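Morning. Coffee machine broken again, so started the prediction first thing and wrote up yesterday's gels while waiting. Chain of 402 residues, entered below exactly as on the submission form.
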Amino acid sequence: MKRKMAMIFSLLLCAITLSGCWSKKELTDLAFVIAVGIDKTEDGKYMMIFQVVNPGNVAGATQRGGGSGGVPVSIYKATGDNVVEASRKASNKLSRLIYYAHTNLVVISEEIAKEGVDGLLDALERNSQFRTTAMVVIARHHSAEDVLKILTPIDKISANQIIKTLQFSEKVWGQTLNVRVGDVIHDLDSAGKAPIISGVEIVGAVKKGKRQTNVQASEPDARLNINGIAMFKNGKLVGWVFGETARGVLWVMDKIEQTSITVEWKRKKEAVAYKVVRAKTSVAAHMKNGKPSISIRIKAEGDIGESLVPIDFTNPMQIFALEKKIEQTIKNEVVHAVGKAKKEKTDVFGFGNAVYRSYPREWKKMKHVWDESIFPQLEVNVTVDAFVRRTELRTKPYIFGQ
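Came back before lunch.
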């Protein structure tokens, strides 16, 4: 009898403590949002753009090849006085529940970025489904809606193409940066570093890029291009850097993995291509007579990728002279990047954090005036050590024989 009572008690206890499937959600009831775009309407309201995947069409496009199937994504829009309201109002247009667990990309219009991104990211971070590992980009010259509507030929879902392009561009070129929502939130909360976000733009005919014919041609009418780095101050976009200056920002932040640098040789511009295969940057803060300064040391190793002039790579003196030119080229990129940030009075490099780590007491006195007074006048010393490790399959260019 006691044994039966114990079993009954155990069953009752399990029934009370185990919740079962009370929170279950059927796949057919969910709208999987791959990317979110945020624009501003003419009357000043927020517009949320949801890129929702069409699973059947994505699978069908893979099986049939090309763009013979239906479009892989659908776009839904909703407006509201804030991001949460716009997200809720989207339920009037969707027959499924909006599901953010697979959202990997956030596209913010340049207009909203200039007004400030603090409130937008706060709403996303508080959402229990949303992951702060999602990447964030700024739509340049076009709306976030236009960016998310462009159909891409290789990656069927345009959000995936933007994400992969960001990842590979940062790895092999070094003029754009893969930034996550969590990174931006962390920088917004830091007094010693301002956020930076890469930009995405549309190249070509925007209207044609939204049609399925865009993925059926060998040369699409519109493409998505990752270009530029947006610099923020107090949560607002204040300026852009491009090309070598953008790469200078990444040099300082120790984000360069691989890149290619062209240097002048004997008055011929872009004469030699130097492929960086390994790089390391260290930043240190110093204090003298109550005045801070920053020292940046960059070490780069690479190979000769191309030579358009006759250089004897068996001659150590010529190798040494070439290394000096490479060092000066890298230093110039860093100096230009620092100068641009100083002009905008925004410390996107984290120099303030470096001062805080080394001199926490002094930092407390200067952090409130860092961007406006101290950073623009900050002494920054740059040292570069570049090494040519290999010349690939040639020691003497065939130009010697001409």
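The chain has two domains: 28-241, 243-402. Going to sketch it on the whiteboard this afternoon.
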